């Protein structure tokens, strides 16, 4: 029952979703747009985790579920696994992806020959990029909460195209 | 013969109950499914010493009464599937096969973006697929 779609469609869909939420629906209210995008990601993650845990035996504890997210879930979504997983053994996990697929085509700073850039400051670029991260955060949160682990997920991009989820 | 299938969410809320008999004993079947939920919880919370059953999705025969047998299946997302059947000798492999197909129909129904997780499954396609699976199970019983 699986039909395949070109990956560029997904890229375009995500870019368009972020841009329409930020610019049309909730223009000038980036927090609301962020929450809406994250909520969409939550539902998607919820449903995807149902699909990808179908054949597997049940997980015995939180660590197994997180490892499932790092390995199988990530490779289903992004064709690679998480590169680095750190934990403080007290409930915080850091997932690091060194080449995050959805950000791999984003430039780190606005180019100098960009004609319509009114304010090429670091903050705007970082903020625009961080908008794109709410969706994967929502996906992770949805998948984990469907596996029975309530959590909060935040993302950090200090060096593109690497990306960390906490 | 399968008389009833049920899908119960992780807060023990019913998501889908469908009975396949002509008789009007829906309530009794619901009651049986409800009682089996307790058995599921028991199995999950007090694992037997044999560790191989700890992580299985298929829980096996839950609750044999005088007329019915109830089989259970627990997914990773704590959604439970129950199957009530009147067959007296049903092969384990058949029931596992049934649950696998049922799980795949369930995943497709839940992936519907208009489905709200936690609410009842109202998809007609899901109902049709389930009745097809039940019919094909009926045609190839083990006994």
Evaluate the radius of gyration of chain B: 15 Å
Largest sheet of chain B: 5 strands, antiparallel
Given the C-alpha coordinates, what overall shape of chain A results? globular
Arrangement of strands in the largest sheet of chain B? 2-1-5-4-3
**SS strand fraction of chain A:** 5-15%
In sequence order, what are the helices and strands of chain A, one letter per element?
A: HHHEEHEE
Task: Report what the structure shows.
The complex is a heterodimer of chains A (166) and B (143). A four-stranded antiparallel sheet of chain A has the order 1-2-4-3, covered by helices on one side. Chain A is globular and about 45 Å long. Chain A has four helices and four strands, in the order αααββαββ. Chain A has 166 residues and is of the alpha+beta class. In chain A, β3 and β4 form a beta hairpin. In chain A, 51% of the residues lie in helices and 8% in strands. In chain A, α2 runs parallel beside α4. With 143 residues, chain B is an alpha+beta fold. Chain B is 38% helix and 20% strand. Chain B contains three helices and five strands, in the order ββαβββαα. Chain B has a five-stranded antiparallel sheet with strand order 2-1-5-4-3, with helices on both faces. In chain B, a hairpin with a 7-residue loop joins β3 and β4. About 6% of the residues of chain B have low confidence. Chains A and B meet through α2 of A and α2 of B.
Keywords:
heterodimer; A: 166 residues; alpha+beta; four-stranded antiparallel β-sheet; 4 strands; B: 143 residues; 5 strands; 20% strand; TRAPP_component (chain A); Transport protein particle (TRAPP) component (chain A); NO_sig/Golgi_transp_ligand-bd (chain A); TRAPPC6/Trs33 (chain A); transport (chain B)
Short account of what is shown:
Chain A is α+β, with helices and mostly antiparallel strands and 166 residues long. Chain A is 51% helix and 8% strand.
Q: What's the helix and strand layout?
A:
The complex is a heterodimer of chains A (166) and B (143).
Chain A: H1 7-25, H2 30-52, H3 62-78, E1 84-87, E2 93-97, H4 122-146, E3 155-156, E4 163-165
Chain B: E1 2-8, E2 14-19, H1 26-45, E3 58-61, E4 69-74, E5 80-85, H2 92-110, H3 124-139
Antiparallel strand pairs in B: 1-2, 1-5, 3-4, 4-5
Helix pairs in contact in B: 2-3
């Amino acid at each position: 029952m699986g039909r395949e779609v070109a990956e560029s469609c997904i890229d375009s869909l995500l870019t368009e979703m972020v841009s329409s939420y930020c610019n049309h629906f909730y223009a000038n209210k980036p927090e609301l747009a962020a929450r809406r995008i994250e909520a969409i990601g939550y539902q998607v993650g919820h449903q995807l985790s149902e699909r990808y845990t179908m054949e597997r035996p049940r997980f015995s504890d939180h660590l197994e579920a997180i490892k499932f997210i790092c390995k199988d879930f990530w490779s289903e979504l992004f064709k690679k696994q998480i590169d680095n997983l750190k934990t403080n053994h007290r409930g915080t996990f850091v997932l690091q992806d060194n080449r995050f697929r959805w950000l791999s085509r984003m430039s780190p700073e606005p180019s100098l020959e960009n004609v319509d850039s009114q304010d090429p400051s670091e903050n705007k670029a970082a903020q625009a990029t961080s908008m794109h991260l709410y969706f994967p955060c929502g996906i992770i949160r949805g998948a984990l909460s469907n596996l029975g682990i309530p959590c909060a997920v935040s993302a950090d991009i200090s060096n593109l195209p690497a990306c960390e989820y906490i | 013969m399968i008389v009833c299938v049920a899908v119960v969410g992780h807060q023990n809320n019913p998501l889908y109950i469908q009975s396949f008999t002509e008789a009007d004993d829906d309530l009794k079947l619901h009651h049986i499914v409800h009682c089996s939920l307790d058995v599921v919880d028991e199995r999950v919370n007090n694992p037997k010493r044999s560790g191989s059953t700890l992580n299985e999705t298929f829980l096996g025969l839950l609750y044999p009464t005088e007329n019915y047998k109830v089989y259970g299946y627990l997914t990773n997302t704590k959604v439970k599937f129950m199957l009530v059947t009147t067959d007296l000798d049903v092969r384990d492999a058949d029931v596992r096969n049934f649950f696998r197909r049922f799980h795949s129909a369930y995943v497709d129904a839940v992936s519907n973006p208009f489905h709200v997780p936690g609410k009842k499954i109202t998809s007609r396609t899901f109902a049709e697929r389930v009745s097809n699976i039940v019919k094909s199970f009926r045609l190839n019983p083990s006994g």
